[in-house]
Amino acid sequence: MEHGELKSLREEIEKLKFHNRTLLALLGQLLEEDMQDPSIHEAIVVHDLSKAELREFTQLIRDYEGDVKAFKQQSGNLGPKFTDMSVKGLLQAFVGSNMLTDKCESILQSYEVN
User: Does pLDDT of 23 surpass 90?
Assistant: First the structure.
């Protein structure tokens, strides 16, 4: 693939990402009450996570054994998208989607204590 084609494809991908985030923001404004607790699917779009990033983050949750400092460090090592704020949002989205609820609630409680 030529450099120009590759650049064009990347630009199109960025446009699609922008439109997805914009659409989600508009839906959030229209359905404000329903969007207070985003699902994990909505959170994935908001934080622009790839399948691999979500898989790694999910594994961190599964492996959590009570050490929130280690969890924060490990999630931070996944990349710049994983800030404390985005991690909390993702954990809340897992809870809202009834996925890994006990682990996520435990981690969120640990975040509040620390």
Answer: no
